[in-house]
Protein backbone atom coordinates (compact mmCIF):
# COMPACT_ATOMS: atom_id res chain seq x y z
CA UNK A 1 0.00 0.00 0.00
CA UNK A 2 1.24 3.51 -0.86
CA UNK A 3 1.46 5.75 2.18
CA UNK A 4 2.59 8.84 0.25
CA UNK A 5 1.85 9.44 -3.41
CA UNK A 6 2.65 12.45 -5.59
CA UNK A 7 1.17 12.79 -9.04
CA UNK A 8 2.75 15.19 -11.57
CA UNK A 9 3.71 17.46 -8.68
CA UNK A 10 5.14 20.82 -9.75
CA UNK A 11 6.19 23.87 -7.74
CA UNK A 12 7.39 27.27 -8.94
CA UNK A 13 8.24 30.44 -7.02
CA UNK A 14 7.53 33.56 -9.13
CA UNK A 15 8.89 32.51 -12.53
CA UNK A 16 11.38 29.98 -11.19
CA UNK A 17 10.44 26.35 -11.63
CA UNK A 18 11.81 24.26 -8.72
CA UNK A 19 9.98 20.95 -9.16
CA UNK A 20 8.26 19.61 -12.29
CA UNK A 21 6.36 16.43 -12.86
CA UNK A 22 7.49 14.68 -9.65
CA UNK A 23 6.13 11.13 -9.34
CA UNK A 24 6.95 9.55 -5.99
CA UNK A 25 5.31 6.66 -4.22
CA UNK A 26 6.31 5.58 -0.69
CA UNK A 27 5.24 2.07 0.33
CA UNK A 28 4.13 1.09 3.81
CA UNK A 29 6.97 -0.14 6.03
CA UNK A 30 9.88 1.07 3.89
CA UNK A 31 12.65 3.60 4.33
CA UNK A 32 12.75 5.72 1.18
CA UNK A 33 15.56 8.25 0.91
CA UNK A 34 15.16 11.20 -1.45
CA UNK A 35 18.69 12.05 -2.50
CA UNK A 36 19.87 15.14 -4.34
CA UNK A 37 22.42 17.95 -4.24
CA UNK A 38 21.96 21.22 -2.30
CA UNK A 39 19.19 23.43 -3.61
CA UNK A 40 17.57 20.84 -5.88
CA UNK A 41 14.17 21.12 -4.18
CA UNK A 42 14.10 18.35 -1.55
CA UNK A 43 12.79 20.65 1.19
CA UNK A 44 10.18 22.11 -1.15
CA UNK A 45 9.05 18.55 -1.95
CA UNK A 46 8.88 17.65 1.76
CA UNK A 47 6.91 20.83 2.55
CA UNK A 48 4.42 19.88 -0.17
CA UNK A 49 4.11 16.37 1.26
CA UNK A 50 3.68 17.84 4.75
CA UNK A 51 0.91 20.09 3.43
CA UNK A 52 2.72 23.30 4.40
CA UNK A 53 3.45 24.31 0.77
CA UNK A 54 0.76 24.18 -1.92
CA UNK A 55 1.88 22.59 -5.20
CA UNK A 56 1.62 24.86 -8.28
CA UNK A 57 0.06 21.87 -10.05
CA UNK A 58 -0.32 18.15 -9.55
CA UNK A 59 -1.30 16.49 -6.30
CA UNK A 60 -0.04 14.89 -3.08
CA UNK A 61 -1.83 12.34 -0.98
CA UNK A 62 -0.86 10.95 2.44
CA UNK A 63 -2.75 7.86 3.58
CA UNK A 64 -5.11 8.48 0.68
CA UNK A 65 -6.13 12.02 1.57
CA UNK A 66 -4.98 15.62 1.35
CA UNK A 67 -1.84 16.10 3.49
CA UNK A 68 -3.04 19.11 5.50
CA UNK A 69 -3.20 18.47 9.24
CA UNK A 70 -1.89 14.91 9.34
CA UNK A 71 -0.28 15.23 12.77
CA UNK A 72 -2.31 12.20 13.90
CA UNK A 73 -0.47 9.98 11.39
CA UNK A 74 2.78 11.79 10.60
CA UNK A 75 5.77 13.05 12.56
CA UNK A 76 7.56 15.89 10.80
CA UNK A 77 11.17 17.02 10.88
CA UNK A 78 11.13 19.91 8.43
CA UNK A 79 13.57 22.76 7.84
CA UNK A 80 11.38 25.28 9.67
CA UNK A 81 12.23 25.34 13.36
CA UNK A 82 10.53 22.66 15.45
CA UNK A 83 11.88 23.98 18.77
CA UNK A 84 11.51 27.27 20.58
CA UNK A 85 14.88 29.10 20.82
CA UNK A 86 13.99 30.82 24.09
CA UNK A 87 13.34 27.54 25.91
CA UNK A 88 15.90 25.01 27.10
CA UNK A 89 16.10 21.58 25.51
CA UNK A 90 14.30 20.07 28.52
CA UNK A 91 11.51 22.68 28.35
CA UNK A 92 11.04 21.99 24.64
CA UNK A 93 10.69 18.27 25.34
CA UNK A 94 8.15 18.93 28.12
CA UNK A 95 6.23 21.26 25.80
CA UNK A 96 5.85 18.51 23.17
CA UNK A 97 5.01 16.01 25.90
CA UNK A 98 2.04 18.17 26.92
CA UNK A 99 1.07 19.23 23.39
CA UNK A 100 1.27 16.06 21.30
CA UNK A 101 -0.96 13.10 22.14
CA UNK A 102 1.40 10.63 20.47
CA UNK A 103 4.60 11.92 22.15
CA UNK A 104 6.33 9.16 24.14
CA UNK A 105 8.88 9.03 26.97
CA UNK A 106 11.32 7.46 24.54
CA UNK A 107 12.43 11.07 23.85
CA UNK A 108 14.63 10.94 26.95
CA UNK A 109 16.45 7.79 25.88
CA UNK A 110 16.87 9.16 22.34
CA UNK A 111 18.42 12.32 23.84
CA UNK A 112 20.79 10.05 25.74
CA UNK A 113 21.65 7.93 22.68
CA UNK A 114 22.39 11.11 20.69
CA UNK A 115 24.65 12.46 23.46
CA UNK A 116 22.56 15.52 24.32
CA UNK A 117 21.67 14.80 27.95
CA UNK A 118 24.31 17.14 29.42
CA UNK A 119 23.03 20.05 27.29
CA UNK A 120 19.33 19.77 28.12
CA UNK A 121 19.36 22.73 30.51
CA UNK A 122 20.88 25.17 28.01
CA UNK A 123 18.63 27.38 25.95
CA UNK A 124 18.25 26.23 22.36
CA UNK A 125 19.46 29.66 21.15
CA UNK A 126 22.86 28.69 22.62
CA UNK A 127 22.93 25.29 20.85
CA UNK A 128 25.16 24.51 17.88
CA UNK A 129 23.47 23.42 14.63
CA UNK A 130 24.19 19.77 15.44
CA UNK A 131 22.78 20.04 18.98
CA UNK A 132 19.57 21.60 17.67
CA UNK A 133 19.23 18.84 15.11
CA UNK A 134 19.66 16.19 17.87
CA UNK A 135 16.88 17.79 19.94
CA UNK A 136 14.60 18.00 16.88
CA UNK A 137 15.31 14.34 16.11
CA UNK A 138 14.52 13.31 19.69
CA UNK A 139 11.18 15.09 19.42
CA UNK A 140 10.29 13.86 15.92
CA UNK A 141 11.29 10.23 16.59
CA UNK A 142 9.59 10.07 20.02
CA UNK A 143 6.21 10.70 18.40
CA UNK A 144 4.62 7.29 17.85
CA UNK A 145 2.86 7.48 14.46
CA UNK A 146 2.87 5.33 11.29
CA UNK A 147 4.79 7.83 9.09
CA UNK A 148 7.98 9.84 9.69
CA UNK A 149 8.82 12.65 7.29
CA UNK A 150 12.43 13.60 8.01
CA UNK A 151 13.99 16.39 5.93
CA UNK A 152 17.79 16.07 6.19
CA UNK A 153 17.85 14.25 9.55
CA UNK A 154 21.64 13.85 9.47
CA UNK A 155 22.61 17.38 8.39
CA UNK A 156 25.22 18.94 10.71
CA UNK A 157 25.80 15.67 12.63
CA UNK A 158 29.12 13.93 13.22
CA UNK A 159 29.79 10.41 11.97
CA UNK A 160 29.02 8.47 15.16
CA UNK A 161 25.76 10.40 15.66
CA UNK A 162 24.76 9.70 12.05
CA UNK A 163 25.23 5.98 12.75
CA UNK A 164 23.00 6.27 15.83
CA UNK A 165 20.34 8.11 13.79
CA UNK A 166 20.49 5.32 11.20
CA UNK A 167 19.92 2.81 14.00
CA UNK A 168 16.93 4.79 15.36
CA UNK A 169 15.39 4.92 11.88
CA UNK A 170 15.96 1.17 11.34
CA UNK A 171 14.26 0.40 14.67
CA UNK A 172 11.16 2.27 13.52
CA UNK A 173 11.17 0.54 10.14
CA UNK A 174 11.51 -2.85 11.89
CA UNK A 175 8.46 -1.92 13.98
CA UNK A 176 6.46 -1.47 10.75
CA UNK A 177 6.67 2.32 10.44
CA UNK A 178 7.24 4.10 7.14
CA UNK A 179 10.08 6.60 6.85
CA UNK A 180 10.58 9.16 4.09
CA UNK A 181 13.81 11.09 4.52
CA UNK A 182 15.94 13.39 2.42
CA UNK A 183 19.68 13.80 2.23
CA UNK A 184 22.54 15.17 0.17
CA UNK A 185 25.01 12.86 1.93
CA UNK A 186 25.81 9.67 -0.01
CA UNK A 187 26.30 7.68 3.24
CA UNK A 188 22.59 8.04 4.08
CA UNK A 189 21.84 5.85 1.06
CA UNK A 190 23.08 2.93 3.16
CA UNK A 191 19.98 3.23 5.34
CA UNK A 192 17.35 3.06 2.64
CA UNK A 193 15.28 0.21 1.20
CA UNK A 194 14.76 2.41 -1.86
CA UNK A 195 16.37 5.58 -3.13
CA UNK A 196 14.80 8.35 -5.21
CA UNK A 197 17.29 10.68 -6.88
CA UNK A 198 16.18 14.23 -7.63
CA UNK A 199 17.93 16.32 -10.27
CA UNK A 200 16.77 19.23 -12.44
CA UNK A 201 13.47 19.38 -10.56
CA UNK A 202 12.50 15.77 -11.29
CA UNK A 203 12.86 12.32 -9.79
CA UNK A 204 15.34 10.82 -12.26
CA UNK A 205 15.57 7.31 -10.77
CA UNK A 206 13.81 5.32 -8.02
CA UNK A 207 14.79 1.79 -7.04
CA UNK A 208 16.57 -0.37 -4.48
CA UNK A 209 20.26 0.48 -3.99
CA UNK A 210 21.15 -2.93 -5.52
CA UNK A 211 19.21 -2.22 -8.74
CA UNK A 212 20.55 1.32 -8.96
CA UNK A 213 24.15 0.13 -8.50
CA UNK A 214 23.57 -2.45 -11.24
CA UNK A 215 22.92 0.32 -13.78
CA UNK A 216 26.00 2.41 -12.89
CA UNK A 217 28.67 2.26 -15.64
CA UNK A 218 32.29 1.32 -15.01
CA UNK A 219 34.18 3.83 -12.85
CA UNK A 220 37.81 4.84 -13.38
CA UNK A 221 40.07 7.20 -11.48
CA UNK A 222 43.36 9.03 -11.48
CA UNK A 223 45.42 11.28 -9.21
CA UNK A 224 44.07 14.78 -8.52
CA UNK A 225 47.09 16.21 -10.35
CA UNK A 226 46.29 14.17 -13.49
CA UNK A 227 42.62 15.15 -13.91
CA UNK A 228 43.15 16.17 -17.56
CA UNK A 229 43.78 12.46 -18.36
CA UNK A 230 40.06 11.83 -17.73
CA UNK A 231 38.86 14.41 -20.25
CA UNK A 232 38.62 12.02 -23.18
CA UNK A 233 37.08 9.12 -21.24
CA UNK A 234 34.54 10.81 -18.92
CA UNK A 235 30.89 10.00 -19.63
CA UNK A 236 28.96 13.30 -20.11
CA UNK A 237 32.23 15.13 -19.27
CA UNK A 238 31.58 14.66 -15.53
CA UNK A 239 34.56 14.21 -13.16
CA UNK A 240 34.33 14.24 -9.37
CA UNK A 241 36.57 13.86 -6.30
CA UNK A 242 36.34 10.62 -4.28
CA UNK A 243 38.69 8.83 -1.88
CA UNK A 244 41.57 11.26 -2.47
CA UNK A 245 41.42 10.76 -6.25
CA UNK A 246 39.33 12.09 -9.12
CA UNK A 247 36.87 9.78 -10.82
CA UNK A 248 34.60 9.53 -13.85
CA UNK A 249 32.26 7.01 -15.48
CA UNK A 250 33.16 5.26 -18.72
CA UNK A 251 30.65 5.40 -21.55
CA UNK A 252 28.59 2.18 -21.81
CA UNK A 253 30.18 -0.27 -24.23
CA UNK A 254 33.76 0.78 -23.35
CA UNK A 255 36.27 -2.09 -23.28
CA UNK A 256 36.42 -3.60 -19.79
CA UNK A 257 40.22 -3.82 -19.64
CA UNK A 258 42.60 -1.15 -18.40
CA UNK A 259 44.71 -1.28 -21.55
CA UNK A 260 42.19 0.98 -23.27
CA UNK A 261 42.62 3.73 -20.66
CA UNK A 262 45.20 6.52 -20.90
CA UNK A 263 48.04 6.50 -18.37
CA UNK A 264 47.72 7.08 -15.32
CA UNK A 265 43.99 6.20 -15.28
CA UNK A 266 42.90 2.95 -13.58
CA UNK A 267 39.62 1.07 -13.22
CA UNK A 268 37.91 1.14 -9.81
CA UNK A 269 37.04 -2.29 -8.37
CA UNK A 270 34.17 -1.32 -6.07
CA UNK A 271 31.51 1.29 -6.80
CA UNK A 272 30.62 3.42 -3.75
CA UNK A 273 27.61 5.50 -2.69
CA UNK A 274 29.52 8.61 -3.83
CA UNK A 275 29.72 7.10 -7.33
CA UNK A 276 26.02 6.20 -7.21
CA UNK A 277 25.03 9.70 -6.04
CA UNK A 278 27.15 11.40 -8.70
CA UNK A 279 25.89 9.17 -11.48
CA UNK A 280 22.19 9.77 -10.81
CA UNK A 281 22.39 13.46 -9.86
CA UNK A 282 24.93 14.69 -12.43
CA UNK A 283 25.47 12.22 -15.25
CA UNK A 284 21.92 10.94 -15.84
CA UNK A 285 20.45 14.48 -16.07
CA UNK A 286 23.24 15.46 -18.50
CA UNK A 287 22.42 12.55 -20.80
CA UNK A 288 19.50 12.55 -23.22
CA UNK A 289 16.04 12.31 -21.73
CA UNK A 290 17.24 12.86 -18.17
CA UNK A 291 15.66 9.72 -16.66
CA UNK A 292 17.17 6.30 -15.87
N1 LIG B 1 9.59 30.24 -0.26
C1 LIG B 1 10.45 30.26 -1.28
N2 LIG B 1 10.45 31.31 -2.14
C2 LIG B 1 11.32 31.33 -3.20
N3 LIG B 1 12.21 30.35 -3.47
C3 LIG B 1 12.25 29.30 -2.64
C4 LIG B 1 11.38 29.19 -1.51
N4 LIG B 1 11.64 28.02 -0.88
C5 LIG B 1 12.63 27.42 -1.59
N5 LIG B 1 13.01 28.18 -2.64
C6 LIG B 1 14.03 27.85 -3.64
O1 LIG B 1 13.82 26.52 -4.06
C7 LIG B 1 15.08 25.90 -4.38
C8 LIG B 1 15.14 24.55 -3.70
O2 LIG B 1 15.29 24.77 -2.29
P1 LIG B 1 15.26 23.55 -1.25
O3 LIG B 1 15.45 24.16 0.09
O4 LIG B 1 14.06 22.74 -1.48
O5 LIG B 1 16.56 22.73 -1.66
P2 LIG B 1 17.14 21.41 -0.99
O6 LIG B 1 17.24 20.39 -2.06
O7 LIG B 1 16.36 21.05 0.21
O8 LIG B 1 18.60 21.90 -0.60
P3 LIG B 1 19.56 21.56 0.67
O9 LIG B 1 20.10 20.17 0.43
O10 LIG B 1 20.61 22.60 0.56
O11 LIG B 1 18.71 21.66 1.91
C9 LIG B 1 16.17 26.89 -3.97
O12 LIG B 1 16.61 27.56 -5.13
C10 LIG B 1 15.44 27.84 -3.05
O13 LIG B 1 16.01 29.12 -3.10
TrEMBL record:
Domain named ABC transporter: residues: 4-225
Domain of life the protein comes from: Archaea
Parts forming coiled coils: none
Molecular function (Gene Ontology), one example: ATP binding
Keywords: ATP-binding, Nucleotide-binding
Classification via InterPro entries: AAA+_ATPase, ABC_transporter-like_ATP-bd, P-loop_NTPase
Full protein name: ABC transporter ATP-binding protein
Native source species: Halovivax cerinus
